[in-house]
Amino acid sequence: MNKYLDIAPEVQEALAAGKPVVALESTIISHGMPYPQNVETALQVEGIIRENGAVPATIAVLGGRLKAGLSKEEIDYLGKAGTAVAKASRRDLPVLVAEGRDGATTVATTMIIANLAGISVFATGGVGGVHRGAETTMDISADLEELARTPVMVVCAGAKSILDLGLTLEYLETHGVPVIGYGTEELPAFYTRKSGFKVDYRIDRPETLAKTFYVKQDMGLGGGMLVTNPIPEEFSMDADVINKAINEAVAEAKTLGIHGKDTTPFLLAKIKDLTGGDSLASNIQLVFNNARLAAKTAAELSKLAKN
Ligand code: PSU
Ligand code: MN
């Protein structure tokens, strides 16, 4: 096992027995939602994964250790500390580990640590991507590069239109990352089920998601796969309301000169303020929905891996 990694006993046992495990990120806890909803959601998501037959492994960096599987107390700590905990993407990991610091893992670092632990399926809300205006700012999330190189399936609700969705899809195509719509031909836009962009393939069953990922690795292609799962209709937001809030948030970030790793958390917090609690309620529901699909898919994948 990697000398920088601690796997929680329950996760370790499940992996050793070939049982399904689902990874979860911690930037969504520390930087993506306010306290206490962040902690409540993180614990409920773990419960949903268990109800659907898999073991949850929430991932973070604590005291410089890469952690796969957190205790309730550790999740509570990350939620309470909020943005005081460093947002940790790939470039941050060596410093945090060398200095024995804490880090809330993004999609990129959660994929890295999940892969070190031997976990193949990861559920979250939204992924980073190519930002609007990237043709001049070059702001492209390290999440995309990670999807290109690290063999983990990421189940998300699509991408928010704080990003340039068209350029995000182009980037993923260039890097050979399949973008799958679960039960849909259209890329979902996180708060809404539609974006106006097509996914690469529509897949309707967890078995087929698992088989596709399994075959990708078995063929030696490596790298990740992005599963986009539309928010359930009853929790989806009005497109005009949410797009207005997003446009306002993007304009304000530009005026204030927000850049680098602060951009995404700034936009998320601003959108939440502009929509009252509505966007947060939708955000929580879509994470639950992704956790269910990820757990079912991990169960199918563990059957294939045993054969
Ligand atoms: N998008 C969301 N919610 C989030 C994030 C993105 O809708 O919580 C977080 C994830 O942790 C993602 C990170 O990996 O932001 C991307 O940040 P950046 O754009 O700085 O790479
Ligand atoms: Mn960025």
Key attributes of the depicted protein:
binds pseudouridine-5'-monophosphate, 307 residues, 11-stranded mixed sheet, 13 helices, alpha/beta, globular, binds manganese (II) ion
Question: How would you describe this protein?
Answer:
The chain has 307 residues and is an alpha/beta fold. The protein contains 13 helices and eleven strands. The chain has helices spanning 9-16, 27-32, 37-51, 72-81, 93-99, 107-117, 134-137, 142-149, 165-174, 206-218, 239-256, 263-274, 278-306, and strands spanning 5-7, 21-24, 55-62, 65-68, 86-88, 103-105, 121-123, 153-156, 179-182, 201-203, 225-228. Strands 1, 2, 3, 4, 5, 6, 7, 8, 9, 10 and 11 form an eleven-stranded mixed sheet that branches. Helix 5 links the parallel strand 5 and strand 6. Helix 3 (37-51) runs parallel beside helix 13. The longest helix has 29 residues, at 278-306. The mean pLDDT is 96. Residues 25, 27-28, 32, 89, 106-107, 125-128, 141-143, 160, 190, 261, 264, 268 line the site of pseudouridine-5'-monophosphate.
